[in-house]
């Protein structure tokens, strides 16, 4: 019996997605395989970017379709083809084939039918073999970096001249959206105005001239204010350090007399601590980390500093935080404690050093390590062990888009010897202090640390009665709850019991690969993957990390760092150890030089930008790349989006009444994954 199959083929709308190559297709079903058909309409330019073409194929009854095999004959400049998806109908029967990947020139790609299935539920041997064949081809593309190359760090993709980044992981058709393009445009805009800057550089004054052609960060007019300094601890670029304390840290000598007028009338420091009105920012992780030190060819030595500083904040009678004490080191014999009662420039310098400490910790630990690099092993394990029909692949794939690309870009452009961080960050340079810092952070880290509620509770700031104004907490927790429910609903739709997970050979291979090459098992919440609850916990944490947490620690970089005196990423003088000797000229000599400032402004702007094809957690019109079509899964997704809409409404309502809105954790502004 002859059957007419109608194929509706959608080509991605990304620039460069279309092809002029000859495309052929054969169909494989439960009753056999068709011959190959050339897909070519007369007087029609097939497979243009953004197009949807319909092709009728008459062949014998193939039963239930299992896969479509596309061949790309190649040739010419536009040979590669970015295939989004295919819908096939035959009478009342319908099949969906999501792909969202490249069919490279001169290659063949098997696109598996899109119904999500666990491997043990494959309908026949041909379907099972197709899953295995897809994984074998992926493993040749996604190869782990040798263990010695990632010692004391998460596992990563091995990239070389012979084995470049897989094309499916590269940025697609970006003209203005890649960080390199934004960086170049920012530097060009600044340099156009450079002639107005004097050769002598007073960063506290001349910094405003940098912003003649680019936007001035809002904090520029209030950066010296104590309340603004404290605000950044709860809704700035690194809002995960503040902790409630009931006793002074060891080695931080502070008396009531030094705090005269800074606490509520009649309140002693001991009483303030007992009442949970004192909070700590502590960057002790910087202790013993190598700082930049280099002697140039003329024998001139350059040094940079980011001390292991700490700061006490006080919740005053207006229920607002403000800083009351800062120590720029750990030795009470040589590191004095500064307070607002000290000389104006002493106190301002102390705050600047704290922000520098925070910035170096943030860039390498809170940002690079705890979002970018801990996500990479999960991308690798998924691409190597889970074929397209696996529900976990379908759940996670959108959250991994471009992560391998930006991580490799960061390694080569920012972190490598001679890279951007060597140019201006305190822990950069020949001694690789920034890498020491990342490794030190990884030794201390576990995946559970990325779960927001336990982390916030551990720091003693979960209760709004203790810390009333904490926008990061109040915005992140509803997002975590929505993600956890979403992931749990999806996984439990497929895994009806723990036995289903134990008997899933693809997920067991995923776990073995992850723990052998990606992350030590002690970093994970279980030693064996035998409980669905553990899988829900891990995958929810990964999605939260690459979306919500990355947004929190990434997209305020321009606002936070670009006005460099607010948060310099290096200091050019050692922390002061004597009070009462600093003046404004001394502070200008402490903060970054002109060239270091330009680097910091440009990088901050580039890393705060969205790609032109960004896909957000709550995306207008729905997600562009949709992997699930089953009605039950569509309903789960819609419940997730309803929770995100409620979160968005609450955030907008609060921000409407705020003088300093916190917008990076609005559900419609959070990218699904780490794309920059």
UniProtKB/TrEMBL annotation:
Domain Lipoxygenase: 116-676
Pfam family, one: PLAT
SMART domains registered for this protein in UniProt: LH2 (SM00308)
Ranges where the PLAT domain occurs: 3-117
Segments passing through the bilayer: none
Gene3D superfamilies: 3.10.450.60, Catalase core domain (2.40.180.10), Lipoxygenase-1, Domain 5 (1.20.245.10)
Keywords of this entry: Lipid metabolism, Metal-binding, Oxidoreductase
InterPro entries assigned to the protein according to its UniProt record, in alphabetical order: LipOase, LipOase_C, LipOase_C_sf, PLAT/LH2_dom, PLAT/LH2_dom_sf
PANTHER family, A to Z: LIPOXYGENASE
Official protein name in the record: Lipoxygenase family protein
Organism: Hyalangium rubrum
Lineage: Bacteria, Pseudomonadati, Myxococcota, Myxococcia, Myxococcales
């Amino acid at each position: 019996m002859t059957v007419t199959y109608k194929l509706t083929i959608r080509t991605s709308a990304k620039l460069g997605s279309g092809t002029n190559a000859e495309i052929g297709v054969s169909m494989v079903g439960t009753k056999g395989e068709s011959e190959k058909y050339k897909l070519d309409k007369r007087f029609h330019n097939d497979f243009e970017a953004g197009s949807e073409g319909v092709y009728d194929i008459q062949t014998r009854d193939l039963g239930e379709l299992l896969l479509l095999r596309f061949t790309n004959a190649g040739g010419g400049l536009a040979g590669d083809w970015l295939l989004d998806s295919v819908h096939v109908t035959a009478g009342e029967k319908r099949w969906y084939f999501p792909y969202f990947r490249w069919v490279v020139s001169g290659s063949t790609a098997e696109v598996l039918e899109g119904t999500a299935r666990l491997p043990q539920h494959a309908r026949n041997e041909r379907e099972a073999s197709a899953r295995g064949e897809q994984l074998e081809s992926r493993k040749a593309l996604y190869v782990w970096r040798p263990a010695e190359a990632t010692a004391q760090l998460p596992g990563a993709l091995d990239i070389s001249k012979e084995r470049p980044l897989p094309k499916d992981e590269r940025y697609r058709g970006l003209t203005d959206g890649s960080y390199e393009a934004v960086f170049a445009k920012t530097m060009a805009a600044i340099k156009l105005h450079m002639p107005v800057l004097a050769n002598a550089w007073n960063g506290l004054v001349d910094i405003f001239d940098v912003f003649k052609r680019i936007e001035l960060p809002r904090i520029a007019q209030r950066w010296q204010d104590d309340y603004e300094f404290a605000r950044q601890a709860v809704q700035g670029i690194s809002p995960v350090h503040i902790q409630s304390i009931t006793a002074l840290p060891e080695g931080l000598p502070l008396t009531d007399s030094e705090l005269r007028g800074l606490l509520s009338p009649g309140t002693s420091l001991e009483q303030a601590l007992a009442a949970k009105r004192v909070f700590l920012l502590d960057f002790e992780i910087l202790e013993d980390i190598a700082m930049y030190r280099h002697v140039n060819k003329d024998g001139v030595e350059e040094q940079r500093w980011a001390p292991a500083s700490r700061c006490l904040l006080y919740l005053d009678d207006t229920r607002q935080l403000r800083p009351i004490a800062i120590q720029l080191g750990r030795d009470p014999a040589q590191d004095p404690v500064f307070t607002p009662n000290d000389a104006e420039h002493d106190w301002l310098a102390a705050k600047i050093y704290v922000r520098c400490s925070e910035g170096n910790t943030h860039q390498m630990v809170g940002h690079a390590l705890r979002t970018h690099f801990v996500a990479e092993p999960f991308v690798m394990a998924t691409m190597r062990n889970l074929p397209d029909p696996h529900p976990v692949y379908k759940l996670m794939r959108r959250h991994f888009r471009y992560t391998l690309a930006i991580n490799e870009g960061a390694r080569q452009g920012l972190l490598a010897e001679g890279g951007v961080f060597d140019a201006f960050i305190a822990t950069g340079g020949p001694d690789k202090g920034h890498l020491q810092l990342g490794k030190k952070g990884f030794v201390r880290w576990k995946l559970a640390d990325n779960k927001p509620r336990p982390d916030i509770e551990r720091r003693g700031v979960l209760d709004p009665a203790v810390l009333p104004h904490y926008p990061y907490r109040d915005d992140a927790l509803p997002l975590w709850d929505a993600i956890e429910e979403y992931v749990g609903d999806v996984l439990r739709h497929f895994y009806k019991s723990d036995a289903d997970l134990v008997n899933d050979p693809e997920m067991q291979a995923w776990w073995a690969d992850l723990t052998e090459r990606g992350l030590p098992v002690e970093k994970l919440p279980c030693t064996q993957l035998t409980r669905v609850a553990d899988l829900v916990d891990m995958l929810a944490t990964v999605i939260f990390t690459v979306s919500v947490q990355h947004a929190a620690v990434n997209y305020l970089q321009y606002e936070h760092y670009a006005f460099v005196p607010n948060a310099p990423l290096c200091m050019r003088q050692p922390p002061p150890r004597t009070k009462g000797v600093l003046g404004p000229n001394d502070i200008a000599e402490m903060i970054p030089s002109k060239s270091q400032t330009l680097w910091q402004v440009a990088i901050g702007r580039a890393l705060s930008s969205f790609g032109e094809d960004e896909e957000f957690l709550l995306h207008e019109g729905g997600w562009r790349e949709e992997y699930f079509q089953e009605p039950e899964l569509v309903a789960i997704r819609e419940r997730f989006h309803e929770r995100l809409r409620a979160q968005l409404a609450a955030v907008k309502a609060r921000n409407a009444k705020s003088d300093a809105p916190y917008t990076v954790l609005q559900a419609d502004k959070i990218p699904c994954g780490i794309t920059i």
